[in-house]
Amino acid sequence: MTKPTLLIIGAGASGLLAARELTSFYEITILEANDRIGGRIFSLSHESEIIEAGAEFVHGNLPITLTLLKEAGIKPVKISGKMFRHEQEKFSAVTEMTDGWDDLLQKMEEVEKDMTMQELLMKSFSSPRYEALRRQVVKYLAGFDLADVARASVQGTLKEWQAEEQDNYRVRGGYQSLINYFHEKLKAEGVRVNTNTAVQKVRWEPGSVTLTTTTGAAFMASKVLVTVPISMLQFGKTSLQFEPKLPFETEIANDIGFGAVIKLVLKFKTPFWQTNAVFILSDEVFPTWWTQLPSKNPLMTGWVGGPAAAALSHLDDEELVTKGLSSLATLYNIDIAELHQQLEWAKVFNWQKTSYVNGGYSYAMIGTRAAQTSFSTPIEDTIFFAGEALYNGGHPGTVEAAFFTALEAAQHFKKNRGEI
Ligand SMILES: Cc1cc2nc3c(=O)[nH]c(=O)nc-3n(C[C@H](O)[C@H](O)[C@H](O)COP(=O)(O)OP(=O)(O)OC[C@H]3O[C@@H](n4cnc5c(N)ncnc54)[C@H](O)[C@@H]3O)c2cc1C
Description:
Layout: E1 5-9, H1 13-22, E2 27-31, E3 43-46, E4 49-52, E5 57-58, H2 63-72, E6 76-78, E7 82-87, E8 90-93, H3 101-110, H4 117-124, H5 131-145, H6 154-163, E9 169-171, H7 176-188, E10 192-194, E11 199-205, E12 208-213, E13 218-221, E14 223-226, E15 241-243, E16 256-258, E17 261-268, E18 277-281, E19 288-290, E20 299-305, H8 307-312, H9 317-332, H10 336-342, E21 343-350, E22 362-364, H11 368-376, E23 383-385, H12 399-416
Helix pairs in contact: 1-7, 1-12
Flavin-adenine dinucleotide (FAD) is lined by residues 9-15, 31-34, 39-41, 54-57, 59, 198-199, 227-229, 232, 239-240, 261, 263, 351, 356-357, 360-361, 387-388, 397-402.
């Protein structure tokens, strides 16, 4: 019996895993706008190093990611080392959260009608004695969640903070090795992945879709799974038009937060930082840094997220490297000219400028849950959505989140085929 046809838009973690789950039931073609697969997973080899331009860590003992890594025979490497905070010109090891953090979690738990984190801080933590706490929350939301304190939801943030785990891992050989594993499997199953194929229009009726690309090519199938980043459906800059329109306003995509991020990878001749440091937090322009521990490679990764990253996004790579070096020069009290001399090479990943992604990852705002529900509900058994931004669990904005939504979408397809 011939299999029904399915088109998947996007060859990131969610699109590839969904395809892997559905190859037995559908004849699948994947359409990817960029010239490579992996989306926000992008591991590059440079000299003898693997550099992660996008996803780098497995943030905890995350069941789907770790199971898939095991299946692919790829080892996660546990990260060890200390976290340091730089304040008032001094480094100190971070052993506990700022004073008042437990009170904050308590108040967050008590919130019945969702509000923004900023509203909660103003309502319950406005006194001068909480000044350090307020600063910490703003930095943490921006650095980790890429979120704006004025837009981040209390209930969404709480769900994530409560799920946070201590253990972090890197993926040996880079996250891309997992993507390559999927790709090999898919090729063996006859799935075609067409890169440089940007879908512009989705014309549909129940049981049939025709996708038109920016070059005018047309692809037809009985169903489509859309896995583009939510940024591609936001603020009228949508790269995809649906004809007829979806049964809900696509503007609800704007209710899902999508933060900015810039990552810098700097290779120095010799390390000048604490030998046991893994993460370094500060108030500099590039506030967060990490080393390669347990590897002793003299690489430093700089990270700025959220509104501050959005404000720097227009700078060119050279200007961003200078900002990064001057952050490190201040932190380690080294002359910037000397740091320049120490620098062997620099790589800049300004995700706002990456076509068909245009940002980092999602975070929860007040209307996010409702928007996720609309997008996650199959439309006439013909249009389906997946991707990290539709995930409603404790690990938003991650590869795990993308995988979770792919499995969820695959369940819908299987249900509709009567397979489960
Ligand atoms: C800098 C950075 C660091 C990160 N760090 C981590 C980390 O340490 N750990 C972690 O777990 N997660 C991390 N993440 C998040 C993680 O990378 C993502 O959540 C995950 O990879 C998203 O997968 P996805 O399939 O939902 O989307 P994507 O990977 O974005 O895949 C969607 C694909 O759709 C394509 N596309 C878009 N529009 C079209 C179109 N019109 N036609 C065809 N194709 C289209 C895109 O090119 C893209 O390839 C990071 C992300 C970034 C940017």
